[in-house]
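Researcher: I'd like a candidate sequence for this fold, 398 residues long. If you have to choose between options at a position, lean toward the conservative one.
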């Protein structure tokens, strides 16, 4: 074992990053594998179950070197009010934290984090709280995290101060956030306006530069456009996930979705999740080239298309109204039903002359789709723009 270069051993262990049992066996097998095995095992810890923390604290006390490998933690509500604070004091390398089901403990939690981990770079607030914080209180709390760079809001809301046009500049200056991730979070416009008010007149490298948004219904499209009006000229990396209730036509019946305003984009990910099959009868598929045609950034280098559908592989969901349905990445063979002529027209227009790669994610054999693109999209094929990437069989339950 010692005759193998350490970088080869590290590379092998990279493939075991989520196999905790095997990582433990590797660490016991040879001392040279201990650092990499520890990194993969302890880099991220899910401590949503409260019973895990009392077991972890004594372990860190006995082996302090383990604490330095922990950079990301997910914790549940109530945890940080007692033994969770003890845990935080033992994690010197913590850079990312996910807080879920916060309930009334956010006012105590954020100051504690700011005190013990002032260099925290990534924070995720997730879950509907029974007692959501007031909006102005949330702004004051986030302002304590001076080094925060990425903020994710997942099903997270606040109460009060619904007039987001209020003078956000009156509140403490926000941290220097560059990435905002909003999934079904009504307070995202407040956060974006707060940051905007404090960065007016600043250079292009100040303020938000990366944005992830989740679209489900017309109100989400309106919210996206409101944030776009503030940040479209600065955002360089955009990730939009479409998961419409019904069809995209219903989600878009009010119009909007100002994708053409994003003139500084360097990369754009469009991720679609449909409860229908990937077949010609699925009218929502016709919106894919429509959205691609709205891209207009002359700096755009990479566009990624991801499509998750119901492949009807478990026919039990057809036989019962209450059956759980599983959505999976579309097969490459099925992606031939997309309007590739319209996709080619959208991606080869003059304003997208800098485009270097159109990444299409899927699974299964790529042969038939490659032949289809070669026969129907001569310019895309000649420029070698299309890159087919096989993704894992990640299931989405609906």
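Model: Candidate sequence:
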């Amino acid at each position: 074992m010692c005759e193998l270069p350490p970088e080869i051993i590290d590379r092998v262990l990279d493939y075991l990053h989520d196999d905790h049992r095997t990582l433990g066996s590797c660490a016991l097998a040879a001392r040279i594998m201990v650092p990499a095995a520890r990194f993969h095992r302890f880099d991220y810890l899910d401590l949503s179950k409260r019973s895990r923390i009392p077991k972890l604290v004594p372990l860190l006390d006995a082996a302090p070197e383990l604490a330095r490998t922990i950079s990301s933690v997910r914790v549940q509500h109530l945890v940080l009010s007692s033994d969770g604070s003890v845990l935080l004091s033992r994690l010197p390398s913590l850079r990312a934290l996910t807080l879920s089901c916060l309930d009334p403990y956010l006012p105590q939690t954020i100051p504690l984090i700011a005190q013990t981990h002032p260099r925290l770079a990534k924070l995720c607030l997730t879950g509907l709280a029974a007692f959501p914080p007031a909006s102005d209180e949330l702004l004051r709390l986030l302002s304590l995290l001076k080094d925060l760079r990425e903020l994710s809001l997942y099903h997270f809301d606040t109460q009060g101060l619904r007039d987001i046009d209020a003078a956000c500049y009156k509140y403490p200056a926000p941290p220097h956030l560059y990435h905002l991730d909003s999934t079904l979070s009504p307070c995202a416009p407040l956060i974006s306006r707060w940051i905007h008010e404090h960065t007016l007149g600043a250079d292009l490298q100040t303020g938000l530069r990366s944005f992830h948004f989740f679209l489900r219904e017309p109100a989400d499209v309106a919210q996206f456009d409101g944030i776009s009006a503030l940040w479209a000229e600065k955002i360089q990396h955009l990730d939009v996930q479409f998961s419409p209730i019904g069809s995209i036509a219903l989600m878009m019946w009010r119009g909007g979705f100002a994708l053409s305003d994003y003139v500084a984009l360097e990369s754009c990910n469009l991720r679609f999740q449909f409860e229908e099959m990937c077949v010609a009868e699925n009218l929502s598929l016709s919106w894919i080239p429509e959205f691609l045609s709205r891209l207009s950034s002359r700096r755009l280098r990479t566009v990624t298309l991801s499509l998750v559908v119901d492949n009807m592989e478990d026919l039990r969901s057809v036989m019962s109204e209450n059956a759980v349905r599983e959505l999976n990445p579309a097969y490459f063979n099925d992606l031939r039903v997309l309007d590739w002529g319209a996709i080619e027209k959208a991606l080869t227009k003059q304003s997208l002359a800098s485009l270097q790669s159109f990444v299409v994610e899927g699974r299964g054999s790529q042969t038939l789709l490659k032949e289809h693109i070669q026969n129907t999209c001569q310019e895309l094929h000649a420029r070698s723009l299309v890159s087919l990437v096989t993704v894992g069989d990640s299931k989405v339950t609906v």
